[in-house]
Write the structure tokens for this entry.
Amino acid sequence: MAGTKTAAVLLAGGHGSRMQSKIPKQFLLLAGHTVLWHALKALSESEIDEIVLVTPQGEAEALYRTYREEYGFRKLVAAVEGGIERCDSVVAGLAALRGRGTELVFIHDAARPFVSQELLKRMREAGERYGAAIPALPVKDTIKLGNSEGFVQDTPPRALLFCGTDPAGLFLIQRFALPMKPMTGRVRRRMRAPCSRPMMRRSWNASAPAP
């Protein structure tokens, strides 16, 4: 679908309580820059046309100025404050795209700074083909479906089950109301606990281009 206008809503409004840090995880430093900077860089280097940043309360203007004007992320077209719940933040980000002619929208978590260009390309193609998609992994474990009384009711076929890499990861929606296609693949590590930080550094070191 040549010429499809694509945008990303980058969610960076979390408080990082699971990281046991006073600094929200998206603002922690990784290889000299914030995790948010790395996420913005990955999206900016893709074919995505525009980015809307969803921020903590009271920080939209300052973060927009810092990342667009100081760091030069020119695809960043707006920054808006997030809501109480994650879904509120998504709605706020989508609302900022009204009237911009956007056809495909990525929803991405700023705590996932290592999203690959290959995955972004696959997700764009999947969105254009199926209308909506999410990165997913086939389930390897045997899953049991319980009932309200706490007993096993059924064993769903494994072939029909997928594990979304995280609902906070990356998914693509077109015109906002279509069935979602799971795409096998994964978004690389998300920072969600203190032990994530050394693992993220190892991931960065392994993927960084040689000098």
